[in-house]
Specification:
Elements: E1 30-38, E2 44-51, E3 55-61, H1 63-66, E4 70-74, H2 85-94, E5 103-106, E6 120-121, H3 144-149
Antiparallel strand pairs: 1-2, 3-4, 3-6, 4-5
Length: 153
């Protein structure tokens, strides 16, 4: 989940107003699957289930040291023997458990002032948000997708 650079077009909400909610930072999650939710009228709405584990802050980048403001996070866990020495050193320096990767979110002025290396960002950060922008990356199959689709041996 990330904060868009500029407001994106959303369909009007029930009140007829268009409301855009900006998130100061994002959360990293993994798609678990699909399910459905029923409204009071009995209408089925398909929804995507996203597992969001607590995101651990590994580094807070500042304009003075890095030239821009950002927060770097990781999530999940990885066996220590699966890490390269440079990555293991980054996690050790931050004082957090090794995660499955690094993600970085740019910060504007006065955003993320309460974040420090080692702190956690949980789904509770979305409690007051009414809308969130979800961005995903497909797995991709390359040429094998066409092979699988048409049942070639």
């Amino acid at each position: 989940i990330r904060r868009p650079e500029k407001p994106f077009g959303l369909p009007p909400l029930r009140g007829g107003k268009q409301e855009v909610v900006f998130m100061p930072i994002g959360l990293i999650g993994r798609k678990c699957g699909m399910t459905r939710v029923f409204t009071d009228a009995g209408v089925s709405i398909p929804v995507t289930v996203v597992e969001v584990l607590p995101n651990r802050v590994t580094r807070v980048k500042t304009a003075e040291s890095d030239g821009y403001r950002a927060v770097q996070v990781t999530t999940g866990s990885v066996k220590a023997n699966r890490l390269t020495k440079p990555l293991a050193g980054e996690f050790r320096k931050a004082g957090v458990e090794a995660g499955r990767g690094f993600w970085e979110f740019r910060l504007d002025d006065n955003e993320g002032d309460d974040l420090a290396a080692g702190s956690e960002i949980t789904v509770d950060a979305l409690a007051e948000a009414k809308l969130v922008d979800v961005v995903g990356t497909s797995i991709g199959k390359g040429f094998a997708g066409a092979i699988k689709r048409h049942n070639f041996p």
